[in-house]
Automatic annotation (TrEMBL):
Residues 32-184 form the Thioredoxin domain. GO terms for molecular function: antioxidant activity; oxidoreductase activity. InterPro entries: AhpC/TSA, Thioredoxin-like_sf, Thioredoxin_domain, Thioredoxin_ResA/DsbE_sf. This is Thioredoxin domain-containing protein.
């Protein structure tokens, strides 16, 4: 009952005040809608899960600065993805001073955000940035990410302003670290 009241209050508040960019989640999960897209979610551990379409994701895949980006495409239902996530978390923590940033792009369905994605992130203490890609036009965005990508996951892009590599495979920590070192 408390959950329902929170959702209804949040929906009424968003209708009256416009779109909110972020919602704090403590004991309950609240979702605000902007048209058909969900807005950002803040977990109790301060992670933010942004629900975006490909047009909003694209700039994150082409930044030209001094940071090396490791962008992993995964889903909570993908066993190889789940198996390799600790390697990405460890990499992000180990190489933070070397300006390496890990971004985890979930390909779960948006309606699974509160029932699967957020609990998974909290349970596994994911600290990397998490984005949920909500774009049904996969035939457009998959080849835009990489021409060789079949759409299978896990898939990873490692890039910086000088080099970009794409991998349609799983990684161990040692393999991932080797690939990142080759770009640093």
């Amino acid at each position: 009952m408390k959950y329902l009241v929170i959702i209804l209050l949040a929906l009424f508040a968003s209708c009256n005040k416009g779109v909110k960019d972020e919602v704090s989640i403590h004991e309950e999960t609240t979702i605000l809608q902007e048209g058909s897209k969900m807005t950002s979610e803040t977990l109790s551990n301060q992670n933010i899960v942004k629900v975006v379409d490909y047009n909003a994701l694209a700039p994150l895949l082409a930044k030209q600065n001094d940071t090396t980006y490791v962008v992993n495409f995964w889903a909570t239902w993908c066993k190889p993805c789940i198996k390799e996530l600790p390697a990405f978390e460890k990499l992000g923590k180990t190489y933070i001073s070397d300006k390496v940033k890990v971004i985890l792009v979930s390909l779960d369905f948006p309606d699974k955000l509160t029932s699967q994605v957020l609990p998974f992130i909290e349970k596994n203490q994911i600290e990397s940035d998490v984005i949920l890609l909500d774009d049904a036009d996969a035939n457009s965005w998959i080849p835009a990410i990489d021409e060789t990508w079949s759409g299978a996951i896990p898939a990873t892009i490692i890039y910086n302003k000088n080099k970009r590599t794409f991998y349609e495979r799983s990684f161990t920590y040692q393999e991932l670290e080797k690939e990142v070192k080759s770009i640093l």
